[in-house]
Design brief:
The complex is a heterotrimer of chains A (482), B (117) and C (492).
Chain A (H helix, E strand, L loop, with lengths): L1 H19 L4 H27 L5 E8 L2 E6 L2 H28 L4 H20 L3 H19 L5 H33 L16 H14 L11 H4 L5 H28 L1 H7 L3 H20 L3 H22 L2 H32 L10 H4 L1 H15 L6 H14 L3 H18 L1 H8 L15 H19 L2 H11 L1
Antiparallel strand pairs in A: 1-2
Helix pairs in contact in A: 1-2, 1-4, 2-3, 3-4, 3-9, 3-13, 3-19, 3-20, 4-5, 4-9, 5-6, 5-9, 6-7, 7-9, 9-10, 9-12, 9-13, 11-12, 11-17, 12-13, 12-16, 12-17, 13-15, 13-16, 13-19, 13-20, 15-17, 15-18, 15-19, 16-17
Chain B lengths: L6 H19 L3 H23 L20 H31 L4 H9 L2
Helix pairs in contact in B: 1-2, 2-3
Chain C lengths: L4 H19 L3 H29 L2 E4 L10 E4 L1 H28 L2 H23 L3 H20 L5 H31 L4 H7 L7 H17 L8 H8 L2 H27 L1 H7 L2 H21 L4 H21 L3 H32 L10 H4 L1 H15 L5 H15 L3 H27 L13 H19 L2 H16 L3
Antiparallel strand pairs in C: 1-2
Helix pairs in contact in C: 1-2, 1-4, 2-3, 2-4, 3-4, 3-10, 3-14, 3-19, 4-5, 5-6, 5-10, 6-8, 6-9, 7-10, 8-10, 9-10, 9-13, 10-11, 10-14, 12-13, 12-18, 13-14, 13-18, 14-16, 14-17, 14-19, 14-20, 16-18, 16-19, 17-18, 17-19
Classes of the chains: A mainly alpha (482), B mainly alpha (117), C mainly alpha (492).
Chain lengths: 482, 117, 492
């Protein structure tokens, strides 16, 4: 089906157009917005055919016999790509306000690589086999590198090195090896419901292979391979918002989910029991990253560690491998994306309006920037997983999944983590509203640009809507787990 | 046949090792080329002596000669000698150019000049 | 049915054109002659290749003398592929050479340059088409002598010492090959390679054959820069004129590997080479050491050409590892990597040639901000570099994938670690250049100064090829597979 190819071509064409339009910033950004909307519409148009069970696919090329570069629309991919493409639209809106008032240089290059990164994300979402997944996964790494090092300072270069070396080392040393191994065991790399490994491997092999995948997908930021994520925070805020809260990191956990469901199969992971130890790694990541986040004074770094911790929820859901856990993990991809991007938008707005990056300097800021801080509050509640915001559903189903699998201790882990989330996120808006800051310093601080406010308003509103109306997500996920 | 009976091999090995030793040990670029020529010449002799057949005459049709030596290795080695001569010529002309630009044909001296750059 | 004389023409065209170039003094005219000859050789190679693809083997006997008596040229799919590769890349690099050479070499010397170039090409093509072991030695020396001359044309005076060093080591290698061929002749009384194979005594331990193999492997190893016999290579590639560096990197070592394949598989046979002699173990060990140590050394180079010269040694290591796996899959991976790497390394060296042309230096420091001054050149370098690392979508990935598969088939998991480590090390040195070119600003802002189209076009053709063969692998993988089958099929 050709519209799958267009899903890749639209952002790619945008990248080309945008890089040629340095002289006309208005045209450039209009094109970015338009193609963002178009892409989202394209993804939505796939939903009916996915729901009725026909999974349209499109083959681009076949470099290795039996391992084509192939795209296929399946429920999980549609959820992820719909989330990413919608948020791309919103982020484009946001970056117009951000980049202009921040006076950033090389904006065309910025928008162009941004669009390439989205292309790769869509490729990951719709990949029909391991090879295609790997290809776009690596492309995503390389296309985001120029964004991370955008400023070109010594700090950016250093962060860029950390970023590239961790992501590439894990992907080549573990992920690629696991792919070749799978290919060798089963003779195929296609994603298939129920998995392709069932009769081909011993439980020990399965356990080892699964570990290779989970650690090899470094974008999932499972400890000890999480350091690239805080490092990537040197990037401009829209990059951190979309890529390092949504596209890149979610591409990682999404890949793990996809491999769990379509390569191993839920039953296989559950039966062999060789992956239990990974649950503890994920739990440890959840708790430790939250504790680290608690100590960060730099707002973006705090949010980054919070992301590390939240990603492991999804990894945990994948490893638990029962229908409730998968449901929770998939919902958490969307819910956390919407919540976390709101927080990053706010962090960027604060930086633009007041040039502040430290949490300790933000006392009393709420009076100057009430809208931004209100949005932050909404986002924080959602990320912490409290009702009445969307983040609640993901955690709820994960907790149910843990009980189904008989690990009541994981529920405790989730509870502790929620408390920690509250401890490191909620005080920020509270202090901004109720503490008094040094007043003379705050003269002249105004609200962020309208485009930024609009963007964070949209995402905050979405968090609310998703709590009351998570129905479409349910319907799509039910397709997989049954 | 005793080990000494194959004396041609001993000669070849002796010449080859001598040539090889000169190439490795000498720091003088001209002497290295001499060593290289010696090294190649030893192989020529190896080929030529291979063609000799015991009690065989030269490969020319003549009365009373039944057994001929094999002429092919000689022909082959003619080509190899041409190759050897060209190598020596090229090597020596390189040495001339090196002498022109460095003013020396000793390896150590050349290294010293390169490192001081 | 095509005329088998085409085989002859492929070699004699450059051989005849070479002295003609010497007589013409104009550099431009010589280039034109060389170009016409090269492109005709390429077309002939393409015709021959398409023939052997369908019919298997094409033979030509000199003077009508049939094999063991006369010299015969014999092309099967293996050398058909190599001849095609060599002539194709030579054509592309020659386009580059026109501008690059007139910049680096005085006009009055250019005719000599193109003479040597054509002789080198004649030698390389001769090696690939001949079926006669001694003839092969002669062509090997023609190409080697010509390449010593080509390297000595470099602007830096260290080109002279590099050429001299190469001459000494190359001659020792050639002499070893001569000894090996002599011993084979002494044993079998024939020089035709297929004939030697038929007459070699099978199934008994044969010390002369073992000695011959040892001499040949060491001799060819010197020519192909097999670790630790690679010492001549870095200086030769670094100080040679840019076009020559690319030409030799993409063709000469590849042809030497072909010679190795031919002797190991066609002449001695798989069983003798890998089961009776412990070559598999030797190759794997040397290959691993080459990949790791040469890549590590490359990281610390300050001269970018030298960096990628060491990288060539490492890449040869991959090919040798593939051979050492001593299986059909391993051999396929080797041939595939030989094919892919020729395009990739050619592209990298041409991009560096563009840099040398415009910036006058290929030291790492000189490249600061080159990404902005020469956007097209550095983009080509970046893409070829990604292919070298083995990022998916590129030709480099395809060869690594097959090497992976071959290693897993043998359950050699250690090999996976080596390949991955090699890739990561190559990432580091490629990225040193990328970071310098894109993320550093030069000390004083300078004008944009892109290389001329005559240099960029051939560079981009090679870069495009290194991506094309990552997507459409019908030619590369299909032929590598058939070639491996053919080579193993020679064994009794």
């Amino acid at each position: 089906m050709i519209s799958l190819l267009f899903i890749l071509l639209v952002p790619l064409a945008t990248a080309l157009a945008v890089s040629r339009l340095t002289a006309w910033p208005n045209v450039r950004e209009a094109i970015s917005l338009l193609s963002g909307g178009f892409l989202f519409a394209l993804v939505l148009s796939l939903i009916p055919s996915v729901l009725d069970g026909s999974q349209p696919s499109y083959t681009i090329a076949e470099p290795i016999a039996g391992l084509p570069i192939q795209l296929r629309a399946e429920p999980l991919g549609v959820i992820f790509s719909a989330t990413a493409s919608f948020l791309w639209l919103v982020t484009t809106l946001y970056s117009i306000g951000y980049m202009r008032s921040h006076g950033a240089s090389n904006q065309s290059r910025f928008y162009a690589f941004f669009a390439v990164a989205i292309t790769s994300t869509m490729g990951v979402a719709f990949s029909a086999n391991l090879f295609t997944l790997f290809l776009f996964y690596e492309l995503l790494t390389f296309s985001t590198y120029p964004l991370v090092t955008h400023t070109g300072t010594v700090a950016a270069r250093k962060a860029g090195r950390t970023y590239l070396s961790i992501l590439l080392t894990t992907s080549m040393a573990f992920f690629l090896v696991a792919i070749v191994w799978t290919w060798n065991l089963s003779g195929t790399g296609d994603f298939k419901i129920g998995g392709i490994l069932e009769d081909n491997a011993t439980p020990f092999t399965i356990g080892l292979l699964y570990a290779l995948f989970v650690f090899g997908i470094g974008k999932a930021a499972l400890m000890p391979f999480h350091r690239w994520l805080p490092a990537a925070m040197v990037a401009p805020t829209p990059v951190s918002a979309l890529l390092h809260a949504v596209a890149v990191v979610k591409a990682g956990v999404f890949a793990i989910l996809k491999i769990t469901i379509y390569i191993f199969g839920l039953d296989l992971i559950g039966e062999t029991g060789m992956s239990t130890w990974l649950l503890w790694v994920a739990s440890a990541t959840i708790v430790i990253a939250s504790l680290i986040a608690l100590q960060q004074d730099n707002l973006k770094r705090r949010l980054a560690y919070s992301t590390v911790s939240q990603l492991s929820y999804i990894v945990m859901g994948a490893i638990l491998a029962n229908s409730n856990a998968i449901l929770g993990a998939t919902m958490h991809i969307t819910m956390h994306a919407v919540g976390k991007i709101t927080l990053f938008f706010c962090a960027g707005a604060i930086l633009v309006a007041s040039h502040k990056t430290r949490v300790s300097e933000m006392d009393g800021l709420g009076r100057r920037m009430p809208f931004t801080m209100a949005a932050f509050f909404v986002g924080a509640i959602s990320v912490a997983g409290l009702p009445p915001l969307g983040g609640f559903w993901g955690k709820w189903h994960l907790a149910l999944g843990s009980l189904d699998a008989g690990y009541s201790i994981l529920v405790a882990v989730l509870m502790v983590s929620t408390l920690l989330n509250i401890a490191y996120l909620i005080p920020i808006p509270l202090r901004a509203f109720f503490f008094k800051g040094p007043s003379q310093e705050y003269c002249g601080i105004k609200e962020a640009p309208v485009a930024c406010l609009l963007a964070m308003g949209i995402t905050a509103f979405c968090s609310l809507v998703l709590f009351f109306y998570p129905e479409p997500l349910y319907q799509l996920v039910i397709e997989i787990v049954n | 046949m005793s080990a000494l009976g194959l004396y041609n091999y001993w000669i070849v090995i002796f010449l080859m090792m001598t040539g090889f030793y000169v190439v490795i040990s000498s720091g003088n670029l001209v002497k290295k080329i001499i060593g290289l020529s010696l090294f190649q010449a030893s192989v020529f002799i190896l080929y030529i002596s291979l063609g000799k057949i015991s009690n065989g005459g030269p490969p020319i049709l003549r009365e009373g000669v039944e057994l001929y030596s094999n002429p092919l290795p000689h022909v082959l080695i003619l080509t190899a000698i041409v190759v050897g001569v060209s190598t020596t010529a090229l090597g020596l002309s390189l040495v001339v150019r090196i002498k022109e630009s460095y003013g020396a044909v000793e390896e150590e001296e050349i290294h010293r000049q390169d490192e001081s750059l | 049915m095509i005329d088998s004389q085409l085989l002859l023409l492929q070699v004699t065209l450059p051989l005849i054109a070479a002295p003609i170039c010497l007589l013409i003094k104009s550099g431009r005219a010589c280039w034109a002659i060389a170009f016409i000859v090269t492109i005709s050789s390429f077309s002939l190679a393409a015709i021959v290749f398409s023939y052997v693809l369908t019919y298997g083997v094409l033979e030509y006997n000199f003077g009508g003398w049939v094999a063991p008596w006369g010299i015969s040229y014999r092309v099967d799919i293996v050398n058909g592929l190599i001849a095609l590769l060599v002539s194709a890349i030579t054509t592309i690099v020659l386009v580059f050479a026109r501008t690059s050479v007139s910049n680096e070499i005085k006009n009055k010397n250019q005719s000599i340059f193109y003479t040597a170039w054509l002789l080198c090409l004649a030698g390389l093509l001769g090696i690939t088409v001949t079926g006669d072991a001694f003839n092969l030695f002669v062509f090997l020396e023609i190409s080697s002598l010509a390449s010593y001359v080509l390297i000595a044309f470099g602007q830096d005076r260290r080109a002279l010492t590099a050429s001299y060093q190469y001459l000494v080591m190359g001659t020792i290698g050639a002499t070893f090959i001569l000894i090996g061929v002599g011993l084979l002749y002494a044993m079998t009384g024939t020089l035709n390679m297929v004939d030697i194979a038929a007459r070699l005594p099978q199934g008994v331990t044969n010390r002369t054959a073992q000695t011959a193999l040892a001499f040949l492997v060491v001799g060819v190893g010197l020519k192909l820069a097999l670790f630790p016999l690679h010492l001549w290579l870095p200086n030769a590639y670094t100080f040679a004129p840019s076009a020559v560096g690319a030409f030799l990197a993409a063709t000469a070592t590849k042809v030497a590997i072909y010679v190795l394949l031919r002797f190991l598989f066609t002449v001695f046979g798989f069983n003798f080479s890998f089961e009776e002699m412990p070559l598999d173990l030797i190759f794997v060990t040397l290959g691993i050491v080459a990949v790791i140590s040469a890549s590590a050394v490359a990281i610390f180079q300050d001269n970018v050409k030298r960096m990628f010269a060491y990288s060539s040694v490492a890449q040869i290591g991959y090919m040798i590892i593939g051979l050492g796996l001593s299986s059909k899959a391993g051999l396929t991976a080797s041939i595939l990597h030989l094919f892919n790497h020729a395009w990739i390394k050619g592209g990298i060296f041409l991009a560096l040639g563009c840099v040398a042309y415009k910036l006058g230096s290929v030291r790492l420091g000189a490249l600061a901000g080159a990404g902005y001054r020469m956007p097209w050149t550095m983009a080509a370098f970046l893409l070829a570099g990604l292919s070298l690392i083995g990022v998916p979508l590129t030709a480099g990935f395809i060869s690594k994938w097959y090497l992976f598969e071959a290693a897993i088939e043998k359950d050699w998991w250690l090999m996976l670690i080596v390949i991955v480590m090699g890739s990561l090390l190559s990432l580091i040195y490629v990225w040193r250049v990328i970071e310098m070119a894109y993320l550093r600003r030069p000390d004083h802002e300078e004008e944009k100064s892109e290389a001329p189209l005559s240099l960029l076009l051939p560079t981009w053709v090679l870069v495009f090829a290194s991506f094309y063969f990552g997507l459409d692998t019908r030619l590369s993988v299909g032929v590598a597979h058939k070639a491996a089958e053919t080579l193993i099929g020679y064994s009794p």
